[in-house]
């Protein structure tokens, strides 16, 4: 049995999924690292399924104390300021050295590594990976980050669930804790919206997406890999499909969507417009809209290692059977009888 520290494990999406999957496997132990703030002093430490160690990421001793008895540290931190994201990870990794942690994973959980240089808000992930992997190598710590493509759960965004026990269970499965409406401009099936990304030759692009609950299962399985396999970019592919396929799967469910598409050039026009808007008036909303437009452009390109992911973890952990888009949509959009 190893003890895994999940930094940011309070996150209702990835944190929840990873912590739950490790605990469900029953072979390993988890501690969640969470920022120490005054009103959390008395928070029930079992509220997230695992004990919480409250930490100060700017204090080496605070982090080192929290990591005592752990062997693996996995980060799902999301810090908007790129330098703070890097500095916080380096502080965490420095504490891993002192606490003799053997495996470390900085937060990525995005599209493939090729996407980082094509999406402004992900660009610092290259530096984050470089800084962490170099420091880890210096100290003999195995370092890997995980990519999963976009969360498949975005296909349930906008859906209303009945306010009863069954409805809550359906919502928990469908959304997996996802609350952001980031993709609604492109994917809002209940409002009959689906924009199909096209490659430069006009065919629908292949895109990898993974269900949040399956990401947790892949990560939990990766804990049992030999340490030397915990290295580099460990991508997982829940399913790889075109949005055209989603269109026809929804048709099978009785929902005919208007046929809308987008191309690399159309994305670029939107990105340029958003850039102009940002120059006149900065807003976080516009910045996020630009990030999503850049991600859709990555999807249009359909490159392996960008919008499409290598099924590296699928091959290393064949016991994990991930949910296909057909299974997911069938379960989320089947009508209750
Ligand atoms: N592939 C996709 O479709 C997709 C979608 C969304 C996100 N992501 C990625 O998934 C990862 C996690 O995202 P998320 O949405 O789950 O994150 P989140 O819930 O917003 O944040 C995760 C945790 O980070 C901690 N945190 C936030 N600000 C912090 C700060 N300034 N200093 C230290 N800790 C801080 C919080 O923990 P405490 O408050 O407990 O300390 C929080 O629970 C990120 O790498 C993100 O880019 C991927």
Automatic annotation (TrEMBL):
Keywords: NADP, Oxidoreductase
Pfam families: NmrA
One Gene Ontology molecular-function label: oxidoreductase activity
SUPFAM superfamilies documented for this protein: NAD(P)-binding Rossmann-fold domains
Keyword Lipid biosynthesis: no
InterPro entries: NAD(P)-bd_dom_sf (IPR036291), NmrA-like (IPR008030), NmrA/Isoflavone_reductase-like (IPR051609)
Domain NmrA-like: 3-253
Protein name listed in UniProt: NmrA-like domain-containing protein
Organism the protein comes from: Exophiala mesophila (Black yeast-like fungus)
